[in-house]
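tokens incoming
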């Protein structure tokens, strides 16, 4: 069983289906693994997209399977609770955060008491980029993008950096910062790869993650400790 240290974060990756034909050939998860509520949610998602429903199901089973290793339980016995802002947690279990996008989900786990937030995105083309920049980014973040563009970096990639960092921060706060995108400054003038940010008397460390070509990801951890990262083997 993995043993996450006090200042260590374990990262797990799981591929998700990206086309309908993969869904048809994928191994189906036993009905007794997911709760009736999870099965109902999967059915609701499936009404609009079978692919999205299967991706959600796969990521949920992946989450259960990983947490079961830490807690020495069966995947079906993991019981999720939800905080006041809807953030899931497991009583007596490790802190965790899960994010999924087209073809991939990534899970962060730590035995530390610090809250976690992770966001991964498939870097699809962004329409109306300037409108997004004006609406959601701080002055410092806009300046960071302009500086990067002068150095030859693509605006869309820089924008995705800012968006994933904000989303990871929001998730680490338990969604308490949801709707406050324009006031969340994620840029450190000394380093864009790892930043110490503060909000409402709480400190967070933001950092970039390399999860594979075509994707971008950010991790946020409560506190001021720059925890070590450990990529875990596929389950």
């Amino acid at each position: 069983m993995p043993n996450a240290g006090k200042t260590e974060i374990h990262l797990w990756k799981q591929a998700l289906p990206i086309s309908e034909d993969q869904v048809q050939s994928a191994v189906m998860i036993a009905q007794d693994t997911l709760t009736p509520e999870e099965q109902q949610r999967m059915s609701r998602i499936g009404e609009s997209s079978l692919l999205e429903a299967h991706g959600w199901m796969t990521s949920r089973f992946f989450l259960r399977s990983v947490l079961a290793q830490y807690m020495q339980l069966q995947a079906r016995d993991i019981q999720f609770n939800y905080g006041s802002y809807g953030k899931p947690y497991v009583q007596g279990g490790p802190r965790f955060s899960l994010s999924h996008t087209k073809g991939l989900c990534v899970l962060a786990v730590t035995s530390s008491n610090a809250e976690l937030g992770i966001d991964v995105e498939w870097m699809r083309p962004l329409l109306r980029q300037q409108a997004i920049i004006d609406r959601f980014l701080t002055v410092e973040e806009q300046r960071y993008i302009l500086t990067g563009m002068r150095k030859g970096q693509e605006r869309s990639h820089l924008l995705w950096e800012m968006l994933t960092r904000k989303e990871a921060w929001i998730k680490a706060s338990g969604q308490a910062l949801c709707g406050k995108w324009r006031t969340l400054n994620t840029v450190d003038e000394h380093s864009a790869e790892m930043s110490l940010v503060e909000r409402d008397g709480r400190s967070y460390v933001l950092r970039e993650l390399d999860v594979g070509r075509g994707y971008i990801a950010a991790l946020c951890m409560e506190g001021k400790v720059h925890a070590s990262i450990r990529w875990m083997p596929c389950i």
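note: Confidence is low (pLDDT under 50) at residues 1-5.
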